[in-house]
Specification:
Two copies of one chain form a homodimer. Chain A is built from eleven helices and 17 strands. By secondary structure, chain A is α/β, with parallel strands linked by helices.
Chain lengths: ~325, ~325
C-alpha cells in the first residue's frame, strides 16, 4: 500500500485508535458552553500552584494522568509522548513530564501542536515503533498574556480582532490495534506567510495556512468538504474562519455548516466577551479531546477532520518588523466499524 | 522484525541513509580546530542580516540550501523537514523555512534537537511515509546570550562551568534506500532531573540524561561502549563529560577514548577561552554534519553513536526556583557495506 499520497498527505496502513482522552480547563472554560465535556476545571487558574507557569505545567500533568486513568494505563505502558506548548522553551510540557518516565519527543508547533502531536504519534505507531503513544499540549491565558503581550494586571485593551488564549490542556492516547475512532490520514503542513504583521489578528495570519493544508488534504485524498461529518480547524476565530471560507469560495468550494473552528466553540462569545473567539494550544486540544470526540461517539459521526493552526511568531520577530508565518497540521479521524 | 527493542530503543528495518549534510558557522567556529569541515563561515556573525535572530534564521537557510546542493536535490524533493532551535517560539527554524515550501514538523528539544530531528526523520522514512527527509537546527551565541543571560554588550563575567553557545547550524538529509551511512537505531530519551539549579552549569544538569539514554541504548541493544568506533554526546562540555564517565564508572563501565563530546571538539579550549567547551543546538549539529560524518567516511568507521543532550529550562523556570530537566536522544549511524 502506498502510504504517501500526494505531496503532503500520509495514509496509515494500520490506523491506531484513540483509546482515551482527557481535557482540563480554567475559569472561562468553566463558564463556557463546553464545560460539561471537561474532565477537570479550576476556578482560579492556579491548579494548586504558586505561579501561572507552574499551573500550566500542572494542567498537562492532570490531563495526562486523567487520560491514563480513563484508558486504564500506567505511564510505563506509554511507548512515547509528544508534547509542546506556547511557553518559551516549552516548559509547560517538559516540567509536566519530568516525573512520568515516559520517552519524550518535544514539539513546537504553536497552536497547531495538538495536530502535530497526534500526527507524529499516529505515524510512529503505524510504522510499528510502539503500541501506545500520547500527544499532549496546553496553554494558559495568564502565561500567554505575560509572555506575548502585557502582564494581566496592566489591564490592556483588547482589539476587536483579538482572541482569548484558553486556559486548558488536552491529552490523547493512541493505541495500535485498539478500539475507538482511528487516525487514518495525516497531512503535514507547510509554512504559509501572506505578510500579516498584526500580532492581534492571528486568525488572519493563520487562515491561509489552514486553506493550504485543507486544500492539499482534499486534493491528495480526492475528497471535498462534504465528505466529512465535521471539519474543525484550530484557532482561527471568527475573522480567520470567514477568511478561510472566502479563500475556498475563490476556488468555487463552499465550506458549509459542517465546517467550524475550535475557537468558535469553546466560549459563548456574546456573553463571555471573547471578541473573535478562543485560541492557544489548549483551545483546540481541549475542544478535540472533550467535546469533539464525545460528539463523534454520541452522534455516530464517521469522519472528523481536525486541523489545528499555529502562528509561528515570537514577540522578538514582531519587534523586528517580521510578518507572521502560519502552519496547519490536519488529522483525519474515522470511526471504526 | 521487532522494531521496538526494550523500553526506549527502536531498530529500523530499512535504515535510511545520510545522503547529504551541511554546516554553517560564525567567527569562533572559524577560529576553531574544526573550521575546515564547515561549508560556510561568517566572520561577523550577521550572515548579511541586520539582527542576530535574522542571522540565525539565515544560517539555517544556508545549511538547508547547501545540503540540498550537495545532495543534488530541490526543496520539492524533500518529503518533510524536522527543525527547531533555542530561540523563543523557535523562530530560527520557522523563519528559515518560510520560503522553501517543504512540509514541516517543528521541534523543541533544546540542544538535543539534532538527535531528535534525525530520530524522527529516520523513523518516518523507515515507516514508509516518504523517501527523503531533512533534519536541521541552529544556535547563535548572541541570540542565546540575550535571551538566556544578558545582552552581549553588558560584558557579563562567565563562570568556570559556563559553556560557549555555538554560532552554527547543521542540516542532514536522509533518504530511504540511499547510499551512505545509515540510521539503524534510535533511542528516545526520557526527562531526567537530578535537581541541579545552576543555569551556568548545563553540563552537570544534562549528564544524568546522557547516562540514562546511553544506558538504555546499551541495555536495549545488548552492547557496550567498546562496540562503537565513536560515541559523541551532545554538549556536556568538560565537566558534564567527566560526570558522565563517573556515572558509568559507578556501574563498572569504562568510557574510554572512543567517547567524547561535541562541546569538547568544536573549539580549542586552551586558546579560545571557552571554559567548559561549546554548547547550543548548533554545536552538536555542526560537529556531526561536518567533522564527524567526514571522519566516519575517511577513517572507515563502522559505528558512530551520536547522543545530543538538551537542558529543558527557561529563564522563567530558573527565576521561579526550578531545577533543570535534561534529555538526550541517541541515534546510531552505521556504515553500509
Amino acid at each position: 500500500m502506498q502510504k504517501k499520497i500526494g505531496r503532503q498527505t500520509m495514509r496509515l496502513s494500520r490506523p491506531p485508535a484513540i483509546v482515551a482522552s482527557a481535557c482540563i480547563g480554567g475559569k472561562q472554560e468553566q463558564e463556557g458552553p463546553l464545560a460539561g465535556w471537561f474532565d477537570e476545571l479550576s476556578g482560579d487558574g492556579f491548579f494548586g500552584e504558586k505561579t501561572w507557569e507552574k499551573a500550566e505545567s500542572a494542567m498537562q500533568k492532570r490531563a495526562l494522568s486523567r487520560a491514563l486513568e480513563k484508558g486504564k494505563l500506567a505511564p510505563g505502558d506509554i511507548d512515547f509522548v509528544f508534547a509542546g506548548d506556547l511557553l518559551n522553551q516549552c516548559i509547560g510540557s517538559s516540567f509536566s513530564l519530568r516525573h512520568f518516565g515516559i520517552p519524550f519527543y518535544g514539539l513546537y508547533g504553536a497552536c497547531s501542536t495538538m495536530g502535530e502531536g497526534l500526527s507524529l504519534a499516529a505515524l510512529l505507531l503505524d510504522g510499528g515503533f510502539g503500541v501506545t503513544a500520547a500527544a499532549m499540549t496546553s496553554s494558559h491565558f495568564c502565561t500567554a498574556e505575560r509572555q506575548y503581550r502585557m502582564p494581566v494586571p496592566y489591564g490592556s485593551q483588547r482589539t476587536p480582532t483579538a482572541q482569548w488564549t484558553a486556559t486548558a490542556a488536552g491529552c490523547t492516547i493512541l493505541q495500535a490495534g485498539g478500539k475507538g475512532p482511528a487516525v487514518t490520514h495525516v497531512t503535514c503542513g507547510k509554512i504559509v506567510d501572506k505578510g500579516i504583521t498584526d500580532a492581534n489578528n492571528m486568525g488572519a495570519a493563520m487562515a491561509p495556512a489552514a486553506y493550504d493544508t485543507l486544500s492539499a488534504f482534499f486534493q491528495d485524498t480526492g475528497t471535498g468538504p462534504d465528505d466529512y461529518d465535521l471539519i474543525a480547524t484550530g484557532d482561527l476565530g471568527q475573522l480567520g474562519h470567514e477568511i478561510l471560507c472566502d479563500l475556498f469560495a475563490g476556488d468555487g468550494v463552499t465550506l458549509g455548516d459542517n465546517c467550524t473552528d475550535c475557537g468558535l466553540l469553546l466560549y459563548d462569545r456574546q456573553n463571555q466577551d471573547m471578541h473573535c473567539g478562543g485560541s492557544g494550544c489548549g483551545c483546540s486540544a481541549s475542544v478535540f479531546n472533550g467535546y469533539l470526540l464525545a460528539q463523534m461517539r454520541e452522534k455516530g459521526w464517521k469522519k472528523l477532520l481536525f486541523a489545528p493552526t499555529g502562528a509561528l511568531l515570537s514577540p522578538t520577530s514582531s519587534f523586528q518588523g517580521e510578518s507572521i508565518p502560519g502552519i496547519c497540521h490536519a488529522v483525519l479521524i474515522e470511526a471504526q466499524s
